[in-house]
Design goal:
- There is one protein chain.
- By secondary structure, the chain is of the alpha/beta class.
- Among the domains are: about 200 residues, 3-Layer(aba) Sandwich (Rossmann fold), CATH 3.40.50.12780; about 90 residues, GMP Synthetase, Chain A, domain 3 (2-Layer Sandwich), CATH 3.30.300.
- It has 17 helices and 25 strands.
- The chain has a 9-stranded mixed β-sheet with strand order 2-1-10-9-11-12-13-14-15, sandwiched between helices.
- It binds 5'-O-[(S)-[(2-aminobenzoyl)oxy](hydroxy)phosphoryl]adenosine.
- The site of 5'-O-[(S)-[(2-aminobenzoyl)oxy](hydroxy)phosphoryl]adenosine has 24 residues, from helix 10, strand 13, strand 19 and strand 20.
């Protein structure tokens, strides 16, 4: 058996069988890591050892932590976990809290101690927390006191969860109080390259959540792929943005990437387009990570703020419509870096540098990854044809004990569930989630293309397009539209929007049905829940 630092073998024992793994390769020289690797030590201890101890790393309202201070806090948390709470290498530790410096310190404390970090979204309720704790046999939790209620409920139903400590708390039992009693320093656990460092649960829309397992090597690989080749941050950068640290988009973009480059990050608990702009202004942020709809909303408000220091904008989570890209560029002069990533692949795998970006396309596989578009049988389709996106690279999908492994990984390729086409120049163009392709009277229609057209209408704030069942055509294109304030959602507007779409894309794609709604249903990671809109459509029996 290979070397492992894990005494608790649960994670390794619950990896899928090797023949169901995607092919994983680290061909780039910067991805050749030593066989013993602790990603927390690489990102934190080594940065301090390299002389950056006094440099600020985490900024938050009323707080500035240097790298040395973050290291000290992480070490003390590691001591509380191992000396007081009985943590053994390989145990799973649930983390629950909003984006906050303590959430970051806890993540590093767990990983330094050889634990497996299972960060969870703040909005999860007892039922979802129970599912996660049960599935990952979680033994310990570090939780923000302000979010205690749902975890306490879950704990009653979770016999494996034996030890919980609360942070952002006071009193003898508070994590901060226990940390203060510890001596400095910590003997880091010497984990193996292929020991599991984190389990990220997918923001899946239905069914039992899937736990994706990632090794210490995978954490380093995402830091050395997208940021190094595409984002190209500098040590004087200040990162900011919206994704939760419990979402791997946020974990990478707002914590791991800045630290890999000796930069700083602003952690804010709750952001609106307005307060994100205020944050960029107040903290002189230079790099922003958020979702397309935030860029759209921020573009309208940006002239009221001083954000000239911003130099990079990353968009992921959902397709970036070309009109939003050009709006952001007109407003700020910044070309958005769009990137598709997934929880299964940990972070972004197709993207483009600013100067290589193409409106409407996501980009090309980033160095280290390969991608292609395949048919039902898994064979590549010629350029210009729509098929399923297949990806492989240094990271990949390994679900925790889940039969759905066989859906995501086939013939060594990760199938992300997205319909894509590759153009003749090798650019990958997003169409829709495979399940969201609309088939109307025999035509394939990608909802996002219709959305892009609608978004160009001055009165449209947001929209989502789904297939509605129709006796005659099988499905028809239906648009849910959120209008800008003051615009009237009446019959005239329906007709106007329909004509508007017909004048911009092939007329057969126009939305035969239009419904005005106050807001789009979204997940906590910012994705439109199209399945809810489809449900709504069928429940109402159609109008
Ligand atoms: C969709 C995109 C078009 C796509 C994520 C960056 O979103 C992330 O992870 P999830 O597991 O969802 C994955 C799915 O989301 N998607 C994401 N980005 C794009 N579609 N263009 C994009 N730029 O359907 C994908 O399969 O929640 C994103 C980094 C880490 C992540 N976990």
């Amino acid at each position: 058996m290979n070397y492992t630092a894990h005494i608790d073998r649960f994670a390794a024992d619950n990896l899928p069988p090797r023949d169901q793994w995607p092919e994983m390769f680290c061909e780039l020289p910067e991805l050749r890591y030593p066989s013993r690797l602790n990603c927390a030590v690489e990102l934190l201890d080594k940065t301090v050892a390299a002389g950056l101890g006094d440099k600020p790393v985490i900024l938050a309202p009323g707080m500035v932590w240097t790298y040395a201070q973050l290291l000290d806090r992480a070490n003390r948390i590691a001591r509380v976990l191992t000396e007081d709470m009985g943590l053994k290498p390989g145990n799973r530790v649930l983390l629950r809290g909003p984006n906050h410096p303590m959430m970051a310190a806890c993540w590093f404390g767990v990983v330094k101690a050889g634990g497996i970090a299972v960060a969870t979204m703040p909005l999860l309720r007892a039922k979802e927390l129970t599912d996660i704790v049960t599935k990952a046999e979680i033994s310990h939790a570090l939780c923000d006191r302000r979010l205690d209620a749902e975890l306490r409920l879950a704990q009653e139903r979770c016999p494996t969860l034996k030890s919980v400590a609360w942070f952002n708390d006071e009193g003898a039992q508070a994590l901060e109080t226990r940390m203060a009693r510890k001596v400095e320093g910590f003997g880091n656990v010497d984990t193996a390259l292929e020991d599991v460092a984190l389990i990220a649960f997918t923001s899946g829309t239905t069914g039992v959540p899937k736990g994706t397992m990632h090794f210490h090597r995978d954490v380093m690989a995402i830091c050395d792929c997208f940021p190094r080749s595409t984002l190209r941050p500098r040590p004087d950068d200040v990162f900011c943005g919206t994704p939760p640290l419990a979402f791997t988009f946020g974990l990478g973009g707002l914590l791991l990437f800045p630290m890999r480059f000796g930069a700083a990050t602003v952690l804010m608990e709750k952001l609106t387009p307005e307060t994100l702009l205020q944050t960029i202004q107040d903290y002189k942020a230079t790099v922003c990570f958020t979702a397309p709809t935030f860029y759209r909303a921020m573009a309208a408000l940006a002239p009221k703020f001083h954000i000239a220091g911003l130099r990079k904008s990353v968009s992921a989570g959902e397709a970036l419509p070309a009109p939003i890209r050009s709006l952001w560029k007109q407003t700020t002069g910044i070309e958005i870096i769009d990137g598709i990533g997934s929880t299964e692949l940990l972070h972004i795998f197709i993207s483009a540098r600013e100067e290589d970006s193409r409106p409407g396309a996501t980009g090309k596989p980033i160095p280290g990854y390969k991608a292609r578009v395949v048919d039902e049988a898994g064979n590549p389709v010629p350029p210009g044809n729509i098929g399923k996106l297949a990806v492989k690279g240094p990271t990949g999908c390994r679900y925790l004990a889940d039969p759905r492994q066989k859906n995501y990984v086939q013939n060594g390729w990760n199938l992300t569930g997205d319909a894509y086409l590759m153009d003749t120049d090798g650019y990958f163009v997003y169409q829709a989630r495979t399940d969201d392709m609309i088939i109307s009277a025999g035509y394939n229609i990608a909802g996002p293309e219709v959305e892009s057209a609608l978004l160009q209408h001055p009165q449209v704030a947001e929209c989502a397009v789904v297939g509605a069942t129709d006796e005659e055509r099988g499905q028809v294109v239906k648009a849910f539209v959120v209008l800008r304030e003051g615009a009237a959602g009446n019959e005239r507007m329906v007709k106007e929007l329909q004509d508007f779409v017909k004048s911009r894309i092939a007329p057969y794609k126009y939305p035969r049905r239009v419904e005005f709604i106050a807001a789009l249903p979204r997940t906590e990671t910012g994705k439109v829940q199209r399945f809810r809109l489809r449900e709504q459509t069928s429940i109402k029996g159609e109008s």
